[in-house]
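Protein modeling request. Please complete all fields; requests missing the sequence field cannot be processed.
Requester role: graduate student
Desired output: 3D structure, token encoding
Chains: 1
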Amino acid sequence: MSPLARPALDPELAALLTAMPLVPEITPEILTQLRRYPSTSIEELLSTRSVERREAIAPAADGSDIALTILTPAAAEAASPCVYWMHGGGMIMGDRYSQLDIPLDWLDATGAIVVTVDYRLAPEHAGTIPVEDCYRGLCWIAAHSEELGISPGRIIVAGTSAGGGLAAGVTLMARDLGGPAILAQILSCPMLDHDNTSTSSRQYSGEPAVWTRETNAFAWNAVLADLPADRIPAYISPSHAEDLSGLPPTYIDAGSAEVFRDEDVDYASRIWAAGGQAELHVWAGGCHGFDSLFPHAELAVAARRARTDWLVRILNSPMAQP
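Delivered output (322 residues):
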């Protein structure tokens, strides 16, 4: 069978990708190599900002430690909004400093306190452990909101790629378990569906890309290895949630030229069908993670600006006033 046609990449992104090594799929050996790359330098990210950095530990459900980093603007208000950040990496790589420049943009624009979580990674910690770690981190923030200077009614959960999927799962857990309260969720190119069968998934199969169907299968297999195939919790694969009602305002974006495009569009459509509020952006020519890989590209600048503008509107809305 001939490969499916793919939407054209944005010309600037296509040129930038020529200098980036792409593989058709990740193997255990490649994953080991990728994990050796140094994480984002938080010192460099904070060097031009007046931000107080604090480290904390939240208890996991099994008693393990979950590391959190709290970043508070020097001029923070007494009851500031909070962005709770979940990093990308397929739930198999990355750490709490990965893609941290994205929520730091929101810290700059809104004065929000940023909290980022080091959830445990598969395959060493599979099943629902990653999403449960993220939920426990949210509970810790809510419980310590007064001492952190956070308004408990203005917590936004956010993440990119796998972190976007985890943010969606955390929001579902908070709804079903009665809290903590979440003002809004920002899901950037989220990894939502372990089925991996959509048209966009099949389009990005067999040839190198930033994230391919084969790499997606590797990551999901690492996460779901110990779970029965017919009983995958929606908290870890949110596309399988039967009910998407009762969710907070949601921002979803993706590129047209990426593996997660269709599951992301479907998730927004199902929120609308359930009577919820969702804003959806599909950026023509965008590859997976284009705005974090190439933040100065014209399309990335537009995508990041649109996301920030939405967050500002949410925080200025009547429902967000402390």
